[in-house]
Design a protein that fits this description.
By secondary structure, this protein is an alpha/beta fold. The radius of gyration is 31 Å and the shape is globular. Helices cover 37% and strands 20% of the residues. The longest helix has 26 residues. The protein is built from 13 helices and 15 strands. The strands form three sheets. A six-stranded mixed sheet has the order 2-3-1-4-5-6.
Length: 502
């Protein structure tokens, strides 16, 4: 069975530190200032032989209005409702606060299984706080240190009985609810991949398509992902820069007239100009977003229709191209645009002029608020991923290369013409090609662009990054000297035979 554990508590009690220790990676941002975590972050945790899903939540605040703190609290309460076990953390050094008492009462009513943990409990300074925790009425507190890894055995001991109990309940329910089935599978039934997508590149439940949504602050990234998910899973609002962590979410995105596509969506923090990023926390958030771009397969660059293609948008798109990711450009807030035809024509012209390295990449208009254009965005992501995985046969490449050279021969620096002898595709994701030639260091960039643009057009690879490497092929004759070497060996052999005869 799949078990879910939500870590809840006041801000700055060490929830994200414990989360990172349980998942074995530094996934959640950690800082001394309170309120760093805002969204719900899930991870696959391991504690001894137990495997479960752990949820890192925002610090519980007493706000109940529509302020940012109030929205964060409602999101945390949602995590409490969906979790099987709640791990309620207090700061042992600070002791039990009135806020802790309020939330302990809430957890008693909303969660069936609550484990009380006193974090930062290393040393004698935490003894008083641990004793105070008994007064919350949630049982014996576990002394923990998420930073140093102390108390993990006690946490295992507290979780294990609950796991066994829930496994028994689930098994009994399955036996009662299991219907009698009589299914016949014929040989005609097959699970064929979508047209044009290679089987090895097809997203599966085990290997979902990794998609990162990036852009400037307040472009609507979290709202867009919520609309795709069909639920308010991510914290949103009019304030810029709400998202801090790069949150990954698993989804089977349905296709119109076809099966759903398994995807893992990464919501990232808004990326401002480097000169404006002063706070340490924002630098950490941007670094987390850049890491999501590096691990993604397709990057959706989300623009604001009111102010598209600003300098920072161009930098973000160029970053995705330099990292070798497939790129889809999506223009959000299209529902409030009035002159849509003129605006779309202007967007396409600006795209081709400002981002020539992504020539042909999909440009999609969407509205995260209304959900309009999501089907087009889905198709564009699949198309970009398909092109990103494209492989061209070597024979076709060399026929194409001969035609390109005949149409436009390479230059002749210092009177010696560069000869292009052979071409092959070395890799995919993104497509990478190697051309064996003479004098690769003298090849001008203009001719390299000529070849790359030809590959895009003739082999239907619009928008995807293409890596073209020129490699020198030595002009040394492999048969040079072999004649003299063979003659010497023959003379030596004859000399030995003549000595035997005498």
């Amino acid at each position: 069975m799949s078990l879910t554990l939500a870590i809840v508590g006041r801000p700055n009690v060490g929830k994200s530190t414990l989360f990172n220790r349980l998942v074995g990676k530094r996934l959640a941002l950690v800082d001394d200032q309170p309120g760093v975590t805002r969204d719900l972050r899930e991870g696959e945790a391991r504690l001894g032989d137990l495997k479960f899903t752990v949820i890192d939540t925002a610090g519980l605040e007493e706000a109940t209005d529509d302020s940012l703190q109030g929205r964060m609290r409602r999101l945390t309460e949602r995590a409490v409702d969906m979790a099987d076990i709640c791990l309620f953390m207090i700061d042992a050094r600070t002791g039990v606060t009135p806020t802790d008492e309020v939330f302990a009462e809430i957890l008693r009513k909303r969660s069936a299984h609550v484990i009380l943990a006193a974090n930062k409990a290393e040393g004698a300074a935490a003894d008083a706080g641990v004793l105070e925790a008994y007064g919350l009425g949630l049982g014996e507190p576990i002394r923990l240190s998420g930073e140093h890894g102390e108390g993990m055995t006690d946490l295992y001991t507290a979780i294990q009985p609950l796991v066994d109990k829930m496994a028994e309940e689930a098994a009994s329910q399955d036996e009662e609810a299991a219907p009698e089935t009589d299914v016949t599978v014929t040989e005609d039934e097959s699970d064929e991949p979508p047209q044009g997508l290679e089987e090895r590149a097809r997203p599966t439940a085990a290997k979902p398509l990794q998609v990162a949504v990036v852009g400037r602050p307040n472009a609507g990234k979290s709202t867009l992902i919520n609309r795709i998910l069909g639920e308010e899973r991510l914290l949103t609002g009019p304030e810029a820069g709400i998202t801090r962590d790069a949150i990954s979410l698993r989804i089977d995105w349905p296709r119109e007239g076809g099966e759903a596509t398994p995807m893992r969506l990464f919501d990232t923090a808004g990326m401002r100009k480097k000169a404006k990023v002063q706070e340490k926390l924002e630098r950490l958030s941007v670094s987390d977003g850049l890491r999501a771009v590096k691990f993604a397969e397709v990057v959706v660059v989300l623009l604001d229709a009111a102010i598209p293609f600003e300098q920072q948008d161009l930098r973000i798109a160029d970053l995705a191209e330099r990292e070798g990711r497939a790129v889809v450009v999506a223009v959000n807030k299209w529902d409030i645009e009035e002159n849509r035809q003129d605006k779309l024509r202007e967007l396409k012209e600006s795209f081709e002029r400002l981002l020539p390295q992504l020539r042909g990449a999909p440009l999609v208009t969407v509205s995260a608020k209304t959900g309009r254009g999501l089907d087009r965005l889905h198709d564009a992501i699949l198309r970009a991923h398909q092109v990103w995985n494209r492989r061209v046969p070597t024979a076709a490449l060399n026929r194409w290369l001969a035609g390109m050279v005949e149409a436009h021969p390479p230059p002749a620096p210092q009177g010696r013409r560069i000869k292009l002898r052979y071409m092959t595709q070395a890799k995919t994701r993104p497509p990478g090609f190697v051309v064996m030639c003479s004098h690769p260091d003298k090849m001008p960039d203009s001719y390299r662009r000529y070849l790359v643009n030809g590959l895009r057009e003739d082999f239907d690879m619009p928008g995807t990054p293409i890596r073209l490497t020129l490699r020198g092929q030595g002009s040394k004759n492999p048969y040079k000297g072999r004649r003299e070497k063979n003659a010497g060996a023959l003379a030596k052999h004859l000399g030995k035979n003549s000595g035997r005869r005498s």
